[in-house]
Amino acid sequence: MHDDSTFPDVLPMLAVGRHRDPRDGGCLMEWVSVLAGERWSDHPACTHPLLAHLARSVNDRVSDASRHALLDLAPLLAGARSGVPSWSLEIAVVTVRHALRRAGALDGRELAVALMTLDRLLAPPDGREPAEMRAATAEALATVPTAAAWAEDFTRAMGPPRHVRGLTRGIVDASVTTVSASSDADDALVSMLTDAVLTYQELTVGGAVASDRSRGTTPERLHGTPRGTGPALSVAAAQG
Fold first, then answer.
1. pTM of the model
2. Where is this region: Disordered (predicted)?
3. Beta-carbon count within 10 A of 142 CB
4. Distance from the CA of 5 to the CA of which of 54, 156, 181, 195 falls in 20 to 30 A?
5. Residue 178 and residue 200: Cα distance in Å, rounded?
């Protein structure tokens, strides 16, 4: 039930960051809190925490002109809540697949490790053996064969993966950083968030993981992520 007392007098303009007063503007997730009838907040309870984190990250990185495209996702985010543990892994998979298309040599290896780790962690809920890779994962890794070969050796040496605290958030953050450095960053970030939201919707209705919906062609990465800032360190902790 909506609490009318929580609604602002006017709908805010989309803006970067969090805002104490809607008259100062509002980020995407603050809009979502309004649509869900919750108190004004950029952390509404109606949205999966990792999906909300991705939405806030994209909101703050796109330009003012592109930020308005995010409004179409607000109604979908308003009901995207679930306690299914594997769904955090699914959200991270979407982001890392988008990032791999724009990765440089160094972060390409780290992202390949992240994707392999996520794929193996999703094997039990998928009902498959860890060595049996998802077709979508294999297709994504095939686009970065050198990085994939390095990641295969790395993950094999580290042993079976574990879902450690902060793993998926670290992978999402690294993916957003990589996509943000591309020449078409605005479109790519909006596409990544849209794909994650639609994938989440399919999960909630019992559908299969969504196929890639990314728009446009893949530009080359403008510059690499500095060593140690990608997901490899956190993923390494998840192995063994």
1. 0.78
2. 210-240
3. 9
4. 54
5. 22
Q: Which two tokens stand for residue 240?
A: 């063994």
Longest dimension (CA), the chain: 58
- Would you mind telling me the total number of residues written for the chain in this entry? 240
> Which residues are within 8 A (CB) of 225 and not within 5 positions of it... i.e. 6 or more apart?
104, 106, 107, 110, 174, 177, 178, 181
- Report pLDDT digits (tens) over 205-224: 764 433 333 333 232 222 23
Number of CB atoms found within 10 A of residue 103's CB = 28
**Closest by CA position to 237, among listed 175, 173, 166:** 166
Query: Is 111 in contact with 174 (CB distance < 8 Å)?
Result: yes
Taking the C-alpha atoms of residue 88 and residue 90, their distance in angstroms, rounded to an integer, is: 5
Structure tokens at 158: 């580290």
Instruction: Give the other-Cβ count within 10 Å of 211's Cβ.
Output: 12
Closest CA to 85 of 175, 202, 203: 203
- For residue 24, what is the DSSP state? G
Q: How far is CA 5 from the centre of its chain?
A: 32
